[in-house]
Amino acid sequence: MALFVPGGTFFTILLISRLLESSLLNAEMKEGEILPPTIQRLMKGYNKYLRPFFDNGPVTVGMSLDIASIDTISEINMDYTATIFLRQRWTDERLVFEGNKSLSLDGRLVELLWVPDTFIVDSKKSFLHDITVENRLIRIFPNGTVLYALRITTTVACNMDLTKYPMDKQTCTLQLESWGYNINDVMFYWTRGNESVSGLDTLQLAQYTVEDHYTSVSEAIYETGRYPRLVFHFELKRSILYFILETYVPSSLLVVLSWVSFWISLSSVPARICIGVTTVLTMTTLMMGARTSLPNANCFIKAIDVYLGICFSFIFGALIEYAVAHFCTLTHPDTHMLMYAHQMHDFDDEINGIVTTISTHSRAKRRKEPAATPSQAPASTELTVSPSSPSGSEPKPEASPPEPTNWCLTILGTLRKILRLISCCHVENPHHIDNYSRVTFPLSFVIVNLLYWTYYLYF
C-alpha cells in the first residue's frame, strides 16, 4: 500500500502539469489564429485602439433608437426607466472586403473592433442585458460599414413641472453623447431624422399617452472641449380619468355631504356636529393619501392640492356655519317667542285696520245726519281723530322748522344708506342662516369649480 501512494501522487502531478501546459499554449495563441480566414485577413494589422480615419478628419456615427418599453415614470424621483435598442453605424476603411454579403459576427467579438464611446447623459443607472449572452450585434458590410446594436435598460432623469398635476404635460429627453472624442474626432447624426426613433406609436403606458416626439442635434460644451450630442424629445400627457375617480369625485361628494347639515334642525346638536367633524376628518385623510405618491417639495403647489384645499375650506366652512347659527340662537330670543311676537304684530295690524274702517264708516254717517247731540260730538270727534293720525297721537306742529342745508341732507342720506345696509345684514331669525347657506354654498362651489377647471385646462 505504501508503494501505490507515491505512484498516485506522481500521476496526479503529471496530469496537472499537462493541463497547465495546454492552457499556457492556448493563452499564447494569437487571436487571429482562431478566427475564420475572412476575419483573419480583416484583423491583420488592425488596431482597435485607433479610431477610423485617424489622420483624415472625424468619423461620422449615425444612430437610431427603438423604444421597447417605458416601464415606470416616477414623480417622486423625477425619472423614467426605459428599455431601448441602440443602433450605431459608422464606416471603417480598414474593414473593407470583397463580396456582396455582410458578415454577422458574435457579439463577443466586439472586443476586437473599435466602437464609439457613446453614453447616456442623464442616466442614473443602466445595464446591458446578458441573458443568455450579452445582447450585442456586430455586422460588417463589404464597404466597411459597421452596424453595432445594443439592448439597454436605463433609468434617466427627467425634470418635471408638477404645478398642473394631474393635468400636466411632461417633456422628457434621452441624450446620447461621446465621452472622450470631441467634435474634431467624432460626429453624431440621426440616420433618418425624426423617424430614427420608433416604437412610441405602439407603446402603452399606465398613466400617460405620448403626444409628440422629435429629435435634435446639438453640442455639449465642457472645460475639456466640445462634444457631439444627439437629443430625443418626447412629450407625455397624463391621463386624468384615474384621478377624477380616485380624488376629485370623492372630495366633491364630501363637500355635498357637508351640506346635509343645513337641512337638520339647529336643536339637533349631535347630528350636525357629527356630520361636520366626520367630513372634515375624511377630507384630511383623502388629502394625505393623495400626497403620498408625490414629492414633498415646497416649491410645487399642485393643481390637485388647490382643489383639495378648496373642498376642505367648504367643508370647514359648513362646520363654522353651524357654530355661528347656534351662537345666534343663544344671543337671540327664543324662536317660539319670536314667532309669537310676529303673530302679535300681525294681529295689531289687523286691529288697526278694523278701527280705521269703523272710523271711516262713522264719518260717513255723521255727514248724513243733520244734527248731533252735544254730548255725542266730542266722542265721535275723538273716535275719528285718533285713528286718522298716522302716528297715533302726534299733534300737528304749529310752525315748520328751518330748512337744513344741503350738506346736512347729504350726510343724513349717507347715514340712512349705511343703516339700511347694516339692517340688511342683520339676521332676525337664526334659522335664516341655514336658508341662506342652502343657496350660497352650492352656488359658490359651482362658480369656484368653473374657474378652477377653466384655468387649469385652458391656461
Explain this structure.
By secondary structure, the protein is of the alpha+beta class. The chain folds into two domains: 34-238, Distorted Sandwich (Acetylcholine Binding Protein, Chain: A), CATH 2.70.170; 240-341 and 425-459, Methane Monooxygenase Hydroxylase, Chain G, domain 1 (Up-down Bundle), CATH 1.20.58.390. 43% of the residues lie in helices and 23% in strands. It has nine helices and twelve strands. The chain has helices at residues 4-28, 37-43, 241-258, 269-290, 303-331, 335-368, 376-388, 406-425, 431-458; strands at residues 59-74, 79-91, 103-105, 118-120, 123-128, 136-140, 145-157, 169-178, 186-190, 197-198, 208-222, 225-238. The longest helix is centred in the C-terminal third of the chain and has 34 residues, at 335-368. The radius of gyration is 47 Å and the shape is elongated. The N and C termini lie far apart (97 Å). 15% of the residues are buried.
**Biggest sheet details:** 8 strands, mixed
Rg (CA only): 47 Å
* Count of spatially separate domains: 2
Report the helical percentage.
40-55%
CATH superfamily of the largest domain, please?
Answer: Neurotransmitter-gated ion-channel ligand-binding domain
Give the end-to-end Cα distance, rounded to a whole number of Å: 97 Å
The total count of strands amounts to: 12
Contiguous helical run count: 9
The run of helices and strands is HHEEEEEEEEEEEEHHHHHHH
Please, what is the average pLDDT? 81
- The proportion of strand residues reads 15-25%
SS content category: alpha+beta
Q: Assign an overall shape.
A: elongated
| CATH T-level topology of the largest domain | Acetylcholine Binding Protein, Chain: A
- CATH architecture term of the largest domain: Distorted Sandwich
Which residue ranges are poorly predicted, with pLDDT under 50 across at least 5 consecutive positions?
1-5, 27-33, 335-340, 370-399
CATH class placement of the largest domain: Mainly Beta
Oligomer: single chain
GO molecular function: GABA-A receptor activity; GABA-gated chloride ion channel activity
Subcellular location: Apical cell membrane
Family: Belongs to the ligand-gated ion channel (TC 1.A.9) family. Gamma-aminobutyric acid receptor (TC 1.A.9.5) subfamily. GABRP sub-subfamily.
InterPro entries: GABAA/Glycine_rcpt, Neur_chan_lig-bd, Neur_chan_lig-bd_sf, Neur_channel, Neuro-gated_channel_TM_sf, Neuro_actylchol_rec, Neurotrans-gated_channel_TM, Neurotransmitter_ion_chnl_CS
